[in-house]
Structures
1.
Amino acid sequence: MMDMTSSKDGQSPPNSKKTSKKPKYSKFSQQELPAWKPFLTPGWVIATFTAIGIIFIPIGLASLFSSGKVVEAEFRYDETCLSPDVAKDAVAYIKSDTTNKTCTHKWIVEQKMQAPVFIYYQLENYYQNHRRYVKSRNDKQLWRKSAELQTDHCDPVDKTEGKEPIVPCGLIAWSMFNDTYKFSIDNKDLTINKKNIAWGSDKNSKFGHEVYPKNFQSGGLIGGAKLNESVPLSEQEDLIVWDENSSITNVQKTVWEDRVRS
Ligand SMILES: *[C@@H]1O[C@H](CO)[C@@H](O)[C@H](O)[C@H]1NC(C)=O
Ligand SMILES: *[C@@H]1O[C@H](CO)[C@@H](O)[C@H](O)[C@H]1NC(C)=O
Ligand SMILES: *[C@@H]1O[C@H](CO)[C@@H](O)[C@H](O)[C@H]1NC(C)=O
Ligand SMILES: *[C@@H]1O[C@H](CO)[C@@H](O)[C@H](O)[C@H]1NC(C)=O
């Protein structure tokens, strides 16, 4: 206490003042700022927890109620669509160009669904967050037409044999999932809207509207879906959705949004 007052008033001898490493007095450096220490009595703790609990009950009820209204129906088609005679060698069947892989399935959804109805596909055990795979893209190339030649990180899907750049380059775009779906009810086709399934931020600041696909899937080994070369990347919403990283191995992506009541 004595020490403190003396330094406060600057009354230490002039000699030691020069060499002293003592910090200048302030309430902050002396840790004298006003403080409040809660006194946790059982009554206080119980009252606080009860009050917070009561605040969260309506929030919880609201979330529970709205999630209860969501009707979700799931249909797994990889096994259903494989007839027993080809199931023995499924890989050969999938790789073959001559087999017809169209699969028609009647699917009864018990509950009533209200528009908008969203359709997703889900891949299990697909490691879209694999270290080399996740880097195999070039964001500059996706965004600017002038950056077309930038194919760093895209190896081995970066250039054609004639050294032309591939747009969009990289394994992610190359491996784009391309199963297609058609939905009908009572033999009437559902009108399907494929617009606005991607995030607006991706469309407006990651995928350029002057960048068009080029030399895509034109090499020897075709990975997945092809892209329409007269549609800019910002409108290729399937690609944008595919490009979003998934940190879980059960990749779930939007395919369609059905805004039309059937
Ligand atoms: C494949 O089969 C479906 C019906 O199962 C048929 O509608 C379609 O035309 C067939 N496609 C080809 C290329 O034969
Ligand atoms: C999807 O890609 C594979 C490989 O290129 C191709 O064999 C298949 O016909 C494509 N499917 C559709 C529906 O385009
Ligand atoms: C590609 O897109 C253009 C413009 O939207 C369209 O007219 C054309 O039919 C599309 N081509 C294919 C093969 O889908
Ligand atoms: C995916 O992750 C990579 C690496 O973490 C990152 O560079 C890239 O921007 C991400 N892509 C998207 C669409 O979020």
Note: The radius of gyration is 31 Å.
2.
Amino acid sequence: MKTVSSLLDAHWYERYQRISKLNIRSSIYDVTNRCNLRCKGCFFFSSGEDKAAPEEMHMDAWESFIDREIGRGVNLAILIGGEPTLCLDRVEAFYRRLPTFCATNGLIKVPRDRFPDMMVGISLWGDQADETVLRGKDTFSISSKNYHGDPHAYYLYTITPRQIGHTERIVQKIRDVGLKIHFQLLSNDEGVDGFSWKPGEMKAIQDEMDEMLEKYPDTVISSRYYHEIITTGKMLDRSFGWNECPSVTEPLDTRKPGTKRLIHFIRWASDLKTMHRCCTSETRDCSTCKDGAAHMSWVMVNKRAHMRSRVDIQNWIEVYEMFAKLYQFIPW
Ligand code: SF4
Ligand code: SF4
């Protein structure tokens, strides 16, 4: 039987050992139903998840809920919304208790005296022109001032089809403000004209992401295998979709037979009682889902399948390392 050590040389095995001890158990929390933007294509608002449950307003309820989550084994809280920075007391309740990642549009600066080392993922949808169409605002001009040079922040650059041939300008802009960048692909949940992917464009953007990673390895946090997986929706001989998705809320996961999945993963609504189906939109068609985190997790939970060759297990290690860097379990 092939073992990881038999497939790898000493350098790769050391990299494997560094991540194999991490045992990450994440869950996702809607901190609030409100946002200071209304992006066209926001999965949260477009699927009505903002109306799924009323926000819990009492801080003591948030605190005891988080303690219960830690008791459930969660060791990484991923805060989304709505816009979490509208409710910093709730964010702080997580941050004081466990490793916490906060997704934000970057318009409000997370005060670093209160959250010195909390990882912040700043959303960016395309370039200035795309952002103006999709988000009604050039958020980069504000977020880049708020987070210039921040060692615990990076841009989650959602690439739109209009970005093909233009991603380098964005990578350079982000490098020039001293931040890192991670790529995602727009799912266009609200069908905005001109923002749906056409045949052939996935291959073009895959090649472009590969090129950016090669040219800017100190800025781009990614891997070629991740680019392949999110653009093709294929991993080894399998296709991504409902039957394979690892990021389904565990108590709502009725799939038979079961699949490799994130252990104890739940996405909670902001009433702290309601659960959402998965890490993204309740109404999204799984066959067209481009969610980057779900694809990343898909690779991570399928280590054994990648033990068929040296290249496959190295690809697995690179994706795991990417995830661990993005959530601050290992340094950049
Ligand atoms: S900033 Fe985020 S939560 Fe707010 S509308 Fe845009 S995508 Fe949705
Ligand atoms: S929409 Fe995406 S993340 Fe949600 S269950 Fe379907 S494939 Fe998974």
Note: The mean pLDDT is 96.
3.
Amino acid sequence: MNLDGALLSANFSVDYPQKPGVLREIALELQPGEILGLVGESGSGKSTLALALMGLLPHKGAATRGEVIFQGEDLLRKTENQLRSIRGSRMTIVLQSPLTALNPALRIGTQLQEAWRAHARGSRDDCLAAVRTALGSVSLPGDGDFLRRKPSQLSVGQGQRVLIAMAILHRPALLIADEPTSALDTITASEILRLFAELNRELGTAILYISHDLLSVAALCHRVAILQNARIVECATPREIFESPREEYTRRLVAALPKSPFEVERSADAARYLEDVLVDSYGE
Ligand SMILES: Nc1ncnc2c1ncn2[C@@H]1O[C@H](COP(=O)(O)OP(=O)(O)O)[C@@H](O)[C@H]1O
Ligand SMILES: [Mg+2]
């Protein structure tokens, strides 16, 4: 199946016990170093897809049928122990909310060092050097003062950077980011988006970037897959998605994007109604 050097080549369906057919015949391919966007509305199965690729769905009682070939090996045929040695090293995930993903009781430095030791052996100095390099890659300081902080002493943006640093500690070939900017304000979100582009360029990390926001996905990704009704209905370059979408659903997604705050038509009736109300309320 994996003849063309794809990093990831997946063909699978997912059923939850109470919700069969959550994902149907999903076909996804990622080349090394590629950024693939996955767009779909809330509840369309984006997180389920991410968990399926990480081999984490058995923990949620879901059945994944098919194959997920990553670096030539089918992850759906691996034991939990084998998966543990892949997760966090060759393939990692960054979730939406940094402050729930970090342990509130442990210092940042301790958590990063534990994440390093989970997949590497070496001296304390090797470990610290790796942690500092990862923090440097996400533009955070690696000094003792920062490493001693607890998660509550970080801003949400810093928390997300710490999680991304943790995710790239072992230079994964694939980073899955599941709505990594949804909990952030607009400016912090765009800084994190830029950070993903930098990591992709500088470390060559392939990224599966999941979001409900087509605009940010189009800015970052080489290709965009659209998830609707349990299926990937279209997968194309951002330019094709915007300029010549094949699917009606994709056309609706593009058409729904705000183009300018002044473009929304305000009803003349509504304006007149407002005037009447104001006149009535305040008299003349
Ligand atoms: N553990 C679960 N058991 C049953 N249904 C689930 C479970 N987790 C998610 N679902 C359902 O699967 C669908 C897809 O959920 P999810 O993958 O979280 O979507 P998204 O990330 O796109 O918002 C939703 O309808 C959700 O209610
Ligand atoms: Mg989700």
Note: Residues 186-203 form the longest helix (18 residues).
4.
Amino acid sequence: MLFFNYGVSSRYCKAIFGSIAALLLSILPAAAASDPPPLRTGVISGAGECGACHKEVLEKWKDSMHAQAVTDPVFQAAYMQAFLDSDGKAKHICLECHAPVSLTNGDTNLKEPVTREGITCHFCHSITATHPNGKRRFDIKVGTTLAGPRGNANTTYHSSVKSDLHRSADLCAACHEYEANGVKIMATWSEWKNSPQGAKGTVCQQCHMPLENSINQRGERISVFSHSLAGGHSIVQLRKGVVVNINTVERFSDRTVVNLELENAGAGHSLPTGIPTRKLVLYVQVTGADNRSQKKSVVYEKVIFNKKGQELVRDSDIMQGLGAVIAKDNRIAAGERRKEQVVFYGATPSEISVTAWVDYVYQPALLQNTEMRVEMTRAERSFGR
Ligand code: HEC
Ligand code: HEC
Ligand code: HEC
Ligand code: HEC
Ligand code: HEC
């Protein structure tokens, strides 16, 4: 009878195996104790399993848009709309970049937790080649050998191979370059290739994955490449992008002309880049001693029209590739100093102050109440006659 009493026997087993394990532990390297289930060929493991040994990387990645590429409500709203509009065909478009694990497990209904992890560790470290805008964007080899920058990891859990691709912009190009029907919807990689940074070989990783001091799970100080990949969702990163200067003011009896300059000082691609519904807006305000002011704005953006000549404003339409032509693109290229002249009509008082600032604006058309607006730079000058 006792034999069938699992409660007792399993506790008994634990006691025995527990002491054997403790014995073994004193001989084996420490890592073995917390090893997650072994990696399997062809199966992408969850980020939590990597985090058992790479706690500091996991924490940064969790905050990144890569970790939220599926669960992000802005993506979900656009994906649902695209899915409905296309009778489900959108899954063959969107998921390759937003839920690439579905390429390996066929989970296009996004049911498995690992698929919902978006651009997850094991996927990105299994990429062996990329083909921007290719029929298939990646070659992957999923197993116990991971592609990394050094190629010297030799743990009981995984080995590693040195991958030049992981130190190159080509890795990012797979998803950050997107053309459909001859329309370049997103061209961050080619913008970068034609930039001064691209010419010098300053890759995406140098700006978006800088080495940072951190503490690993053994409490040791280490320096590790940041996996938070700050971009338009980071105020700190945004403020590195653009600088505005008020150069001169010309006064006439019927108008005031403000001459300004905008410099894309910090980005290795156009500003804004990526998904076209993001805009930069320059505001210029002239205020007289009487406190009356006038304001004007200039919008920097990429605008895409469909075959019928209508502007596409929804991410779901744009990203499905329904565009036919780029109707406007006045974004500021990497390294560019853009001269701008803003004219205010009517006389202005003798003493005026001019204020100029640039906002980064993203208002997804499908989610009316979520506008993202961040001030990137500001300048102010006073002028007397
Ligand atoms: C978008 C792809 C991508 C994702 C997702 C990603 N990594 Fe990385 N990882 C990289 C790249 C690229 C490098 C090398 C950076 C460099 O050399 O500039 C790297 C470097 C590393 C390194 C080496 C760090 C060092 O300083 O030697 C480790 C460890 C690592 N990643 C673990 C992880 C873990 C764990 C996760 C998930 C929590 C993860 N990565 C998610 C692309 C990725
Ligand atoms: C049992 C502990 C352990 C687990 C679990 C683990 N790693 Fe590692 N990994 C290490 C050690 C140790 C190194 C080498 C030293 C270092 O970079 O921290 C390493 C190095 C790496 C590197 C750098 C490789 C190189 O040579 O450039 C990458 C990338 C990496 N791991 C990714 C992952 C990913 C992705 C997972 C989850 C699928 C994972 N690791 C799970 C222990 C582990
Ligand atoms: C497998 C596809 C894939 C790869 C490879 C990839 N990314 Fe991404 N990346 C995405 C997606 C999808 C998003 C947007 C997620 C969202 O907002 O829903 C994103 C977002 C970002 C953002 C955040 C933008 C913001 O709005 O804040 C940055 C920065 C970024 N990626 C840089 C990189 C860099 C640098 C690399 C190469 C080291 C890289 N990515 C590789 C798919 C990828
Ligand atoms: C010289 C530094 C630098 C390099 C090189 C660089 N970036 Fe950026 N990137 C920035 C800065 C600064 C921003 C913030 C300004 C912004 O979002 O417009 C940014 C923003 C982004 C964004 C967010 C876009 C948005 O408008 O929200 C993405 C995505 C991105 N970069 C991807 C890349 C990729 C992919 C590469 C390589 C092909 C790359 N970056 C190369 C500095 C750089
Ligand atoms: C070639 C890869 C690729 C494909 C295909 C793709 N996306 Fe994306 N998507 C990205 C990248 C990369 C970003 C981040 C770009 C940036 O920040 O500049 C992004 C960002 C987005 C965003 C903005 C999310 C946010 O929070 O800022 C939405 C919405 C979106 N995608 C919807 C879709 C939909 C819907 C589809 C399919 C119809 C799709 N995408 C297909 C790569 C892709």
Note: The two ends are 104 Å apart (CA to CA).
